[in-house]
Amino acid sequence: MKYLSSLKNEDLAGKICLLRIDFNIEKAELAGAKNHPRLALVLPTIKFLIKNGAKVIILSHRGRPLEKSKIKNQKSKLQFKIQKELSLRPFVKILSSLLKKPVHFIDFKNGFNALEISKIIARNSIFLLENLRYFEGEEKNDKNFAKRLASLGDFFVNDAFSVSHRANASVAAITEFLPSYAGFQLEKEIKNLSIAIKKPLVVILGGAKISDKIGLLKNFMAEADYFLIGGGMAHNFLLAQGLPIGNSIFEEKTIGFAKKMLKNRKVILPADYVIKDRKILDIGPKTLEKYSEIIKNVKTIIWNGPMGYFENPKFAKGSEEIAKAIMANKKAFSIIGGGETVELMSNVKCQKSKVFLSTGGGAMLEYLAGKKMPGIEALNK
Ligand code: ADP
Ligand code: MG
Q1: Is 242 left (phi over 0), alpha (psi -120 to 50) or beta?
Q2: Taking residues 93-103, what's their average pLDDT?
Q3: Whose Cα sits closest to atom 15 in ligand 1?
Q4: What CATH number matches the domain at 195-368, 3.40.50.1260, 3.40.47.10, 3.40.50.700, 3.40.50.2000?
């Protein structure tokens, strides 16, 4: 793999870099996006490129805009009206204030017009392209779309570990058309997540993207000694046991899998919960005690997914206490990842040396389980 960190001023000056990063931040989080770790962690890459005289065109996506628009219009490729909430435009202001430099937005008003875009690029230095998932080619890893994107720049940098498990045009196919490098954060991710896992290993799983992640339990079956389940993930296990969950979040399609997992003695479920308005919103004190005891005695800890609805401080205790238990185990190497999981860590004092904060949730779990990731494989070619 080639790393951006190996490039020098003479390699970069006057060149145009297409930089893939991950701005997939929920609308509710936009107000605090300036301090969002996902942004903070990629700033060094952007600053390095600018300092060395390169122009930077930032590529990113947000949400699944076409999924929504398809309901309204089967054929349409571009649906601006109903997707305003998934525009990347709000990031222009956030980025320019973080970088203290003007950032220009390229909005695809006339579709993807490379000539028009290159005229804008000639005049300025830092650009943000509108949500790439407005184009069908992005998620289809379409070569033609990748080629059109590639025509805008001289080289490509991937600094979006959290989307590198997806075969998308701006992550995978684009590398066929440009010299391609791993950015600073991706380099860190690869180095830290390639550690040899020492036993005992505990995998802590929570969060809301249940179906995306529950299947990854399988990948750690042999290696992990304990799975501690919390957050929305636990609700699927309750349903699998035939227990009621009121109005709590769950995802239908993985209940069958949860049923199979119930028989596995490594899988440990919460003993109590914090409930409000018929919703389970956090794990309870008995659970915390039990989980902390296990965390205390392991050598490796992998955590993805909050233990509860931590955005409301009333339900943040479960996640914060788990974070504290992890910090208290000074012998273990801990890997904590996921968009929201890392966000909640900004409230916890973190001794950096034995804790690695990964920007990936699903991506981190796949990488650790040794799965081949299209975005990383593409850089290895
Ligand atoms: P990550 O981004 O860290 O990979 P997810 O995206 O899977 O994690 O899930 C994060 C979200 O899960 C958070 O917004 C949190 O509020 C939510 N969550 C966790 N537990 C619950 C719960 N019991 N009820 C509602 N939401 C929950
Ligand atoms: Mg998330």
Answers
A1: left
A2: 94
A3: 309
A4: 3.40.50.1260
